[in-house]
Design brief:
Helix content of chain A: 25-40%
Strand content of chain A: 25-35%
CATH architecture of the largest domain in chain A: 2-Layer Sandwich
CATH class of the largest domain in chain A: Alpha Beta
Oligomer: homodimer
CATH topology of the largest domain in chain A: Dihydrodipicolinate Reductase, domain 2
CATH superfamily of the largest domain in chain A: Dihydrodipicolinate Reductase, domain 2
Order of helices and strands of chain A: EHEEHEHEHEHEHHHHEHEEEEHEHEEEHE
Number of strands of chain A: 17
Low-confidence stretches of chain A: none
Largest interface: A-B, 51 and 51 residues
Largest sheet of chain A: 11 strands, mixed
Radius of gyration of chain A: 24 Å
């Protein structure tokens, strides 16, 4: 019976790979034939690992005629992309967690897959353990999804939650997160929003059924968020989160971005804390749904990889055309709206000289530039006789807002516009 | 080309049926061949409905050789069960939203389906538009799920949310809900927990891969919840929700129930308000996830029905063995734990004579009966010189708690144990 099992080749035995191996090693449907690692002699936290499975040459896996499913968990573009292409050309189905590869080279990848009648599944690449890709492709297939708002990066959500709870500054919390292993030594990929941008690119592509170009996704990180902004947001009924969002307008233009956002406490996303991820979708006919859960980690991410493996394994042998709903059939590239042309509400924190005319002046400048204000509050006067003014605007165009900021900053009574953060628009 | 479309027979053109028809009428993969209704002459809120599709004889649909997918949206056991069985015997695949039928006759239904190599899909039967059945069966297939806590009934969640927000009593909010159409004229099925019990029966069956017997599901409704309990819960950091839960212990015994519960405000479920539904799952390797969204309504529920239809349609023509992961392969019946043997925390609201010894006495009675207390607070003294005492216990066995209540109620200083509500146990 052993030989009837479907054979898997695993490329990468890091955190997620270990979770996949541990969970699936005794499965009765699939078995590991080979596992490619960088260094066979490296000690691994896996009980009774069958060392004879290990190879340092991933080519052995993608060219092994017995292997039917290749699981790529090394990340990055090289050599993952070439390995996957070779595997596809050899008729192997792919399971990957490689968000960067999908965002940058997804189109070519899926074309090669279709040419070879293979599937590429990637549930683990977006929001870790949360079921999102397969649901969008299958049970939500009848929907026209037109909006996504999501927390897709656990590291930044952890940092923002800690800043909020402890009132501690960004730098301190980042250091603590690095010590605890929640942030990497070079945190750029997370804190500057690259990771979330990769993920929203793929998520928007499948939700809108149009290709989103990752280099046109607006991206802004969390490193400029101040504890004063956290405090002001709380008082106004908001939490500050790094939100990856995607909207499709009536004309089919896509607005896809990653940036900090003031999220209403009435919204589910405001209550997603620490390393938890969440995806809120709006569409027709479904309305609004939110899926939340662990966005990373050995076992949660393994759950998604394994789900993909089992979905492929279940149909190998019953059909020559596996998983028709999970394939990529859209080739249209979305027209993207430039961030300057988007319409948003804004939170502004302005440091000004303590002059009683200053609030009126800000109001006048805004009005002159087509910006209506929802609220303007002089929060406190500091010891150095400066005032902190918090402004929430109504919906306005980004380019109008930017021009307004320039004018405000030139004013003699204004010291600095300290923070500009976009505010969530509820339906 | 028109004739190449896969033909659907729709039984029931009520709220959900209308949503399905409106959304799918111009689909390029499927088309409606016949729609069975009780009364053809009834006016319907559907633009340019093709009246020639309507029939008052559902037998025409289940016996039509051209129809490949039968969508049953009438609910109840008769005649739905017989119609579905006939359709299956005629080789038709089934999409249904019939939670009562699944809970009571699911086993026979799935057996007939397998005998005829057909699938029965029912995403819409549980939690309306929220993707939950297909995710559990597919992308979460590698998990051992051991706990579900869910809000599965929108009517009761609406009533509890309103009671909480307005401080209004149950009877008043029920009447208002009936006027607004959120509760039925006879609300029993919702407010006494029958609807949620049907849903958790099926949800636990697929999550645990063991049949749950609906008549062994403990069920308790919301009609005894008082605004005083809401207020006390809020002060203690909880919300009161009607929770459908299912747990699998280490020995594989199932504890499945529906009853009001004090849910910690730290838990996502506490923030699920009005008619929204939510399902929290815990399992290995995934950890904890929560899926939330609209639990009912024309269009959200239609989303799930349509997802099921499209999943079937996508594989008709590519394989003779459709959707292997969506089939029912488990035949073991779960051993169920009796509610008396379950371990819970409890909230008690006790009305007592205003005697300074009474708190000590309650504490002693509890200790004598193996009940440890987390807190005991005399909340206020009423004008009639009685005291309201709020107790939160530590984990204890239900039968110990019940015996304790009997003893407390016999005490000379106790007027009444006004409320006994179980309290959520966080991991």
């Amino acid at each position: 019976m052993e030989n009837k099992k479907i054979k898997i080749g695993l490329i990468g035995l890091g955190t997620v790979g270990s979770g996949v191996y541990k969970t699936l090693r005794n499965n009765n449907l699939v078995e590991f034939k080979k596992i490619a690692v960088r260094d066979k002699s490296k000690p691994r936290n896996i009980d009774s690992l069958d060392m004879s499975l290990l190879t340092e040459n991933a080519e052995e896996i993608v060219n092994d005629p017995e292997i039917q499913i290749v699981v790529e968990l090394v990340g990055g573009i090289h050599p993952a992309f070439d390995l996957i292409k070779t595997a596809l050309k050899n008729g192997k189905h792919i399971v990957t967690a490689n968000k960067e590869l999908l965002a940058k080279n997804g189109e070519e990848l899926f074309n090669v897959a279709e040419e070879n009648n293979c599937v590429v599944l990637y549930e683990a690449a977006i929001a870790g353990g949360i079921p999102i890709i397969m649901p969008i492709k299958t049970i939500l297939a009848g929907n026209k999804i037109n909006k996504i708002e999501a927390i897709l990066n656990g590291t930044t959500n952890y940092i923002l939650t800690k800043m909020d709870m402890q009132g501690a500054p960004y730098e301190d919390v980042l250091k603590e997160s690095q010590m605890l292993g929640y942030a990497e030594a070079d945190p750029t990929g997370d804190v500057e929003g690259y990771d979330a941008a990769y993920k929203i690119t793929t998520l928007a592509t499948i939700a809108f059924r149009k290709r989103i170009k990752v280099d046109k996704v607006y991206r802004e990180g969390i490193s400029k968020i101040r504890t004063a902004d956290m405090k002001a947001a709380n008082e106004l009924g908001y939490k500050i989160k790094l939100i990856a969002s995607a909207k499709l307008d009536k004309n089919g233009n896509a607005d896809v971005r990653v940036h900090p956002m003031l999220v209403s406490k009435k919204s589910t996303l405001a209550h997603i804390d620490y390393v938890t991820n969440a995806v809120s979708l709006s569409g027709y006919p479904i309305g609004d749904i939110t899926l939340s859960g662990p966005g990373a980690g050995e076992f949660p991410t393994a759950s998604s990889v394994i789900g993909d493996i089992l979905a492929i394994a279940a149909e190998i042998g019953t059909t020559d055309y596996l998983l028709p709903m999970m394939r990529c059939h859209h080739h249209e590239t979305a027209n993207m709206i430039d961030i300057e042309d988007t319409i948003n509400k804004y939170y502004l924190s302005i440091n000004a000289k303590n002059n009683k005319g200053v609030i009126g002046k800000i109001g006048t400048i805004c009005a002159d530039n087509n910006i209506s204000l929802a609220s303007i509050v002089q929060k406190c006067v500091d010891q150095d006789n400066t005032a902190n003014i918090t402004v929430i605007t109504e919906l306005c165009r980004e380019k109008d807002l930017r021009r307004t900021i320039d004018v405000i900053e030139q004013d003699e009574f204004i010291n600095k516009v300290e923070s500009i953060i976009r505010v969530q628009t509820l339906n």
